[in-house]
Amino acid sequence: MADVxxxxxxxxxxxxxxSIPGRFTCDGDDVSPPLSWDDPPAxxxxxxxxxxxxxxxxxxxxxxxxxxAEVRSLxxxxxxxxxxxxxxxxxxxxWGGPCPPSGEHxxxxxxxxxxxxxxxxxxxxxxxxxxxxxxxxxxxxxxxxSYRRAG
Length: 151
What we know:
Blueprint: E1 5-6, E2 9-10, E3 35-37, E4 46-53, E5 59-68, E6 73-74, E7 84-85, E8 104-114, H1 126-133, E9 139-148
Parallel strand pairs: 1-9
Antiparallel strand pairs: 2-3, 3-6, 4-5, 4-8, 5-7, 8-9
């Protein structure tokens, strides 16, 4: 496989290594945060976004496939309408915000540039999406932040 280009993924709501504001979690409005990224490598046909919690066995909070190639940002609360949302580990389709049972958890937002849209349907599982894009990643960016529930 060719070299994977590094993408810069960011959010205006929090910084790399910072804290995710409560409004994006189960303790708040539980809306997806705003995200943006730079131009992808040549040949990009779409994007896949995965959000997981490595402190909870890589619990999947969001799978969003088939983000169109021309898109460079997802508005707050608007991601599920931009691509094809998959099923998270809460058993729902779309965004499921941080909701750690105790302590502070990290959340990885991983964006992948792929050469063409995937043949996946709404509600596809994380393994289905990962298998569909296997060996086809042109670029990758990651943003990691944490959340600690009050109390």
